[in-house]
Specification:
- The chain contains nine helices and 24 strands.
- It is α/β, with parallel strands linked by helices.
- A hairpin with a 2-residue loop joins β20 and β21.
- α4 packs across α8.
- The N terminus and C terminus are likely disordered.
């Protein structure tokens, strides 16, 4: 599945698999010409697509040292490298150095994309190298709490630890390496009422995103309405809230509908379903202050208060389905995590074209770099998969990408507005069509 970004530029490039990325310490400058000359002709594992090149000495391991999942292997000239699941380096920069863009030469990193002669044999020569992020725009961050296979996790680290970087390489949980290029997460406003605290829908959506491998980077923007403040806007001598679970309070006596208290002259802070329950038990209506998150979201959209972009909310009138209407995605009040995952996917797919253009335009422009090949490059030290016991002269680097390619947000930057149930949202469109 491919799509063309309206601005002609990709954002949120995230490799679809851990094995898409290799890490190498190189004894050459990190400009495109030097890296091309260094890597061309070297045998690489058949899945390798991206290489994080680090200046020699950045890892404290020295040129020629290599490890694959912690096993020492020989390396004649590729430089220090570590495989997936192993430490990428012995030395750690301090927090200021790690988050800085344009680090010193000793700690600098760059990211290149490579092509190989064939995907059939276990190893084949690198035939093309393209710089996708240079050392002056790349940050290398240690974030052991981050799962580098989760796009939202990568975007959170990028925003918190290296907000000025165009490309953020993250060494995260399990020692795995990942990166995000041109991070522009999809902003989803979540309309919810409180209490309870934390806001349930926001908390559930955040937990889903912590494990969402197949969603693009997402930033949740809570839009919360406090039930106590809502009640205060309609003074009454007695308030009736739907249930005690949220421990909602107000200035004055409070009762809870789920306890079926004796009838009193109260004002109901509720919604259509709680009004129906009230009328069933008490056989007469009561003054009502509407607290339905769906209605609050609709009012916010109509007034322009919520601004453009997708909105996620909930409604108790929906018991077993999700509703989508003009960028508003509504899940059931008691939605399961699976239903919230579905709702987030639909919210991403609902991103309007105008927001797509605005988000992509916010990312720094970059000129496409041609994939140049060397007609005379001879095989050198191989770039081997992580976990393999490589022979002398073969450097160990992790394997590369699956056919899914790289992830980008549906409707944003490179993909059509559909969310597929595959391991990746879809491939990123590049000038060569891959």
């Amino acid at each position: 599945m491919t799509g063309q970004n309206v601005t002609g530029q990709n954002v949120n490039l995230v490799p679809a698999r851990y094995r898409s990325i290799s890490v190498a310490s190189v004894p050459v400058p990190l400009d495109e010409a030097s890296l091309r000359e260094y890597f061309l002709g070297r045998p690489a594992y058949r899945r390798t697509r991206y290489i994080v090149a680090r200046a020699a000495g950045a890892e404290g391991a020295g040129v020629g040292a290599a490890r694959a999942n912690g096993a020492r292997v020989g390396a004649a000239g590729v430089g220090a490298a570590r495989g997936n699941g192993a430490r990428v380096g012995a030395a750690r920069a301090d927090a200021a150095e790690v988050g800085a863009v344009g680090a010193s030469a000793a700690g600098a990193s760059a990211v290149v994309e490579v092509s190989r002669d064939s995907d059939t044999p276990l190893f084949s020569e690198i035939t093309a190298v393209s710089l996708i992020a240079g050392p002056d725009e790349t940050a290398f961050v240690d974030a052991p709490e981050a799962d580098t296979g989760i796009p939202t996790s990568l975007s959170r680290v990028a925003a918190d630890r290296a907000p000025g970087a165009r490309c953020v390489v993250v060494r995260g949980r399990y020692g795995h390496i990942g990166f995000i290029l041109d991070p522009v997460p999809v902003r989803i406003r979540v309309v919810e009422v409180v209490p309870p605290h934390p806001a349930k829908l926001v908390d559930q959506a955040s937990r889903v995103l912590d494990l969402a491998e197949d969603l693009p980077p997402v930033e949740l923007v809570p839009e919360l309405t406090d039930l106590g403040l809502l009640a205060a806007g309609s003074p009454a001598s007695h308030y009736l809230f739907p249930c005690r679970a949220g421990t909602a309070t107000a200035d004055g006596p409070v009762s809870y509908l789920d306890e079926i208290p004796p009838r009193a002259d109260w004002t109901l802070i509720g919604c259509a379903r709680s009004r129906a329950i009230h009328d069933w038990f008490y056989e007469r209506a009561a003054p009502v202050v509407d607290m339905c998150p769906r209605n609050l979201a609709l009012e916010g959209l109509r007034s322009g208060r919520l601004g453009p972009g997708p909105v996620l909310t909930k409604c108790c009138l929906l018991e077993d389905r999700i509703a989508v209407e003009d960028g508003l995605v509504v899940v059931p009040w008691g939605a399961s995590l699976a239903e919230i995952r579905d709702g987030l996917g639909r919210a991403v797919a609902a991103v309007p074209p105008a927001i797509v253009a605005q988000a992509a335009a916010a990312a720094p422009a970059r000129a496409p770099s041609p994939m140049a090949a060397s007609p005379t490059a001879a095989p050198a030290d191989a770039i081997a998969p992580a976990g393999a016991m490589a022979p002398a002269g073969v450097a160990a680097l992790p394997p590369a990408v699956t056919p899914a390619g790289a992830m980008a947000p549906a409707g944003v930057a490179a993909l059509p507005p559909a969310v597929t149930p595959t391991a990746a949202v879809g491939p990123t469109t590049r000038p060569d069509g891959r």
